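Incident log, entry 3
Record: Small, acid-soluble spore protein N (86 residues)
Problem: checksum mismatch between cached and fresh output.
Input:
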Amino acid sequence: MPYHKNKQQAFEAAQQGTMEAKEWYDHLVKSDADYGSQLHHLKQEVNEAFEQINNALEVASEKQRKQLEQFRHDLQAIVEEVNMYE
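Fresh output:
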């Protein structure tokens, strides 16, 4: 993922990445035959979103910073939930 210098672009990338990770989590079904594959993809999405958040935090305004911290919190909750079932 390229580094974004523009505050708005960086924020939007982090927001989109977080939304995509949440969507993957919402559709994760342990009983599916391809659960392992889904879980792997979810982990990739979460890692990418964390990276996007970290990049955005480097250039974020104070208002964006608060929202980015919430995104990070939401992703951490997904990680903790998934780790409970592994």
